[in-house]
Structures are given as structure tokens and as C-alpha cells.
TrEMBL record:
Protein name: beta-ketoacyl-[acyl-carrier-protein] synthase III
Originating species: Asparagus officinalis (Garden asparagus)
Gene3D superfamilies documented for this protein: 3.40.47.10
Family, similarity comment: Belongs to the thiolase-like superfamily. FabH family.
Domain Beta-ketoacyl-[acyl-carrier-protein] synthase III C-terminal: 298-387
Reaction(s) this enzyme catalyzes, per UniProt: malonyl-[ACP] + acetyl-CoA + H(+) = 3-oxobutanoyl-[ACP] + CO2 + CoA
Domain of life: Eukaryota
Entry EC number(s): 2.3.1.180
One Gene Ontology term of the molecular function aspect: 3-oxoacyl-[acyl-carrier-protein] synthase activity
Record domain Beta-ketoacyl-[acyl-carrier-protein] synthase III N-terminal: where: 159-238
Pathway(s) served: Lipid metabolism; fatty acid biosynthesis
Tagged with keyword Transferase: yes
Length: 388
């Protein structure tokens, strides 16, 4: 597939992940003032801190949240023609979490974000921006603003990204650009999904794969010497959209008017279909494209795979993860994987796995992590990160 990279040439990043003119770049202070207008919303009157342009960014906190209900392979075998052995051998998945009752995407996102702020020891009022990646928000118009309210981030604004399994990586890179070019200090990046809402539980090819979860990280401005983004690469190819999608349902047109033959109005209520996937094509795409994008990011960072402490990929299929590791020459002991416990949680999978690895003591300060997201769109991308 022809890839349209939006990474390096246009952003002018060098091997260090900074602008090529970094050595000549002076810090520029920008003071933003809000107009005093009667009746203005509180958000337009919030206090603004001076902004420093040209800073690096580093990961200083992470968090995650999962629903209470766990669905095992054996549970699925009761409702669809499958078995624990059939699922685990082909995917590496044994369990997944599914939202029930009053649980929702927003609540999971808020819980994950709170944990990230606590680890970073940053108050909610010091957050400047919230970027949420979700293809399954509680509201069609997105959830970042609601998260901003529920967290109490009174000095922040937020927006949503819809890029499925690559969304978190895209949000992460976007956040670093706001820090570098916009002078932002603290940015929350959240991946939160409830894919179970769009799974056909009569289709054993797809219902075995997906679960619900949320993960978050806090990115913070830092000096160039501390920069935690060492290299990145982002790509899209819409010609592969047919292999993984959840389109609007095709509904038969209403009966035409008896007067002029025009369609009746108003139209029927819209709804999205179940997730539709060509597993073989998605697998082929992943094992080909992911090593390539990681190699581009490694080259930009001036590193080789032997310099990497951890490989953290989107948790889609253990065979994909193992294949990418083999192609890059990364040993099994350097792979971070929690796929067996949670399944494919789309944009939540990378921050969820990172949070568990950090809190367990596996990932330590200074460790270099090669991470990648890939999936619907088709979108794919990678980043070489340094933890803390």
C-alpha cells in the first residue's frame, strides 16, 4: 500500500526529534491575555501562564482503568462456536473486560487520567490540554470537554481524535507538537474505548478479539536535553479502509412521495454497523508495515533495535507482536504484552500496557521504548520514547 507519511520533512525534525534549527532556536515568551467581556464564559477568562516555545517533552505519569466484568474464552464458547484453545492459539487472548451497568467510556477515561496526574504529582488545574483518542465515545460529538470538566482541569481545553488503534500514538505526537510549537506545559493524552458496543457476538472471527479499557499519560514540557521523544513516524492509507471498518448501516430508502417522487423526510435514524474485519489482510498489513515504521523512527532517533529496552506494540494479536519482534531482532524478554488479559482495546492498549509495566517496576526511568499503533483507517505510526 502506498503510505503518505506526515512526519519528518514537513515538521522539520532532526534525528533528535527536534527542529533542525534547534541550536539557533531562542526561547520565546508569549503571554496570552483574555478579553474582559461581560458575560464571557469562565473558560475564556481563565488564567494563562507564560508560554515557552521550543521545549522538549517527556512522559511523567501514566494511568489506566478497566471495567469490572471479565469475559473469558470459556464464557464466549457458551455463546459462539469457539473454544479457549482455538482463541488462545490464534490470538494469544484468554480474557477481556466489558463495560456493564453504569460504566462508560468517560468514567474509565477520567479514572485513568486521575491516576496519571497522581503519578506525575501534577494538579488538575495545571493541565493545559486534554487529547482523547476514542472511536467509541459516549457522545457522538466526543468526550474531551466532559473529561476536562470531570477532572477539574479548569485551565485546560480539549479535543478528540478518531483513529482507532493508532489514535493514542497520533495523540501523543500531536501533544509533543503543542508543547514544542505552542508552549504548552502539561498535556493529558488518553485512549479510551468500549469496542464491545460494536461487536457482533455471533461472529467468532471478531467477537473473540475486543475488550474495553482506558489508558492515559501526562506529557510535560522539559529542556531539549531531557526530551523523551526521540523519533516518530505517522502514516495513513485509505485504500485499506475496506479491511477494517464499522460504517453507517445501509438502510433501505423510505417510500417516495406520491406527489413528486422525492424521498420522504425526515430520514430514518442512523446507526453504525458492527465491526467488520478481514483478518488475513489486516494481519498482512501489520506484519509488513509495523517493522517499517519502527525502523523509520529508530533511524530518526539515531538508534538501532539493539538500543531499545522495550518493544510495546498495539495489543492486537500475539502473533503480530512476535512477528514484528523477530523482524527487528528484538528478544522476547524485551516485549511488553498484556494481550492475554485484556484483548484488543484499540487506542487504550498502548497506555494500558505501559501503565502496568511501569507500576510493576518493569519499565524504569531512562528506559527507551519502541512503540507503534496500527489498524483501521488504515492508519499506522510509531514513536521511540524515553520514560521519564
Amino acid at each position: 500500500m502506498a503510505a503518505a507519511s506526515i512526519g519528518h520533512a514537513y515538521l522539520g525534525v532532526s534525528g533528535s526529534g527536534f527542529f533542525s534549527a534547534e541550536k539557533n532556536l531562542k526561547r520565546v515568551w508569549i503571554r496570552c491575555c483574555s478579553p474582559s467581556v461581560d458575560g464571557a464564559s469562565s473558560s475564556s477568562l481563565r488564567n494563562r501562564r507564560p508560554r515557552v516555545i521550543g521545549m522538549g517533552s517527556k512522559l511523567v505519569g501514566c494511568g489506566s482503568a478497566v471495567p469490572k466484568l471479565q469475559i473469558s474464552n470459556d464464557d464466549l464458547a457458551k455463546i459462539v462456536d469457539t473454544s479457549d484453545e482455538w482463541i488462545s492459539v490464534r490470538t494469544g487472548i484468554r480474557n477481556r473486560r466489558v463495560i456493564t451497568g453504569n460504566e462508560n467510556v468517560n468514567a474509565l477515561a477520567v479514572q485513568a487520567a486521575k491516576s496519571a496526574l497522581e503519578m506525575a504529582e501534577v494538579e488538575a488545574e495545571n493541565v493545559d490540554l486534554i487529547i482523547q483518542s476514542s472511536s467509541t465515545p459516549d457522545d457522538l460529538f466526543g468526550g474531551a470537554a466532559r473529561i476536562q470538566k470531570d477532572l477539574g482541569c479548569k485551565n485546560a481545553w480539549g479535543f478528540d481524535i478518531t483513529a482507532a488503534c493508532s489514535g493514542f500514538i497520533m495523540g501523543l505526537i500531536t501533544a509533543t507538537r503543542f508543547i514544542k510549537g505552542g508552549g504548552y506545559q502539561n498535556i493529558l493524552v488518553i485512549g479510551a474505548e468500549a469496542l464491545s458496543r460494536f461487536v457482533d457476538f455471533t461472529d467468532r472471527g471478531s467477537c473473540i478479539l475486543f475488550g474495553d479499557a482506558a489508558g492515559a499519560v501526562l506529557l510535560q514540557a522539559c529542556s531539549a536535553d531531557e526530551d523523551g521523544l526521540l523519533g516518530f513516524d505517522l502514516n495513513s492509507d485509505g485504500s485499506g479502509q475496506r479491511f477494517l471498518n464499522a460504517p453507517i448501516k445501509k438502510i433501505e430508502p423510505e417510500a417516495t412521495s406520491s406527489t413528486n417522487g422525492s424521498p420522504m423526510f425526515p430520514p430514518r435514524k442512523s446507526a453504525y454497523s458492527y465491526i467488520q474485519m478481514n483478518g488475513k489482510e489486516v494481519f498482512r498489513f501489520a506484519v509488513r508495515s509495523v517493522p517499517q515504521t519502527l525502523q523509520v523512527s529508530l533511524e530518526e532517533a539515531g538508534l538501532t533495535s539493539s538500543n531499545i529496552d522495550w518493544l510495546l506494540l498495539h495489543q492486537a494479536n500475539q502473533r503480530i507482536i512476535d512477528s514484528v519482534a523477530t523482524r527487528l531482532g528484538i528478544p522476547q524478554e524485551k516485549i511488553i504484552s498484556n494481550l492475554a488479559n485484556y484483548g484488543n482495546t484499540s487506542s487504550a492498549s498502548v497506555p494500558l500496557a505501559l501503565d502496568e509495566a511501569v507500576r510493576s517496576g518493569k519499565v524504569k526511568a531512562g528506559d527507551k521504548i519502541a512503540t507503534a499503533g496500527f489498524g483501521a483507517g488504515l492508519h499506522w505510526g510509531s514513536a521511540i520514547l524515553r520514560w521519564r
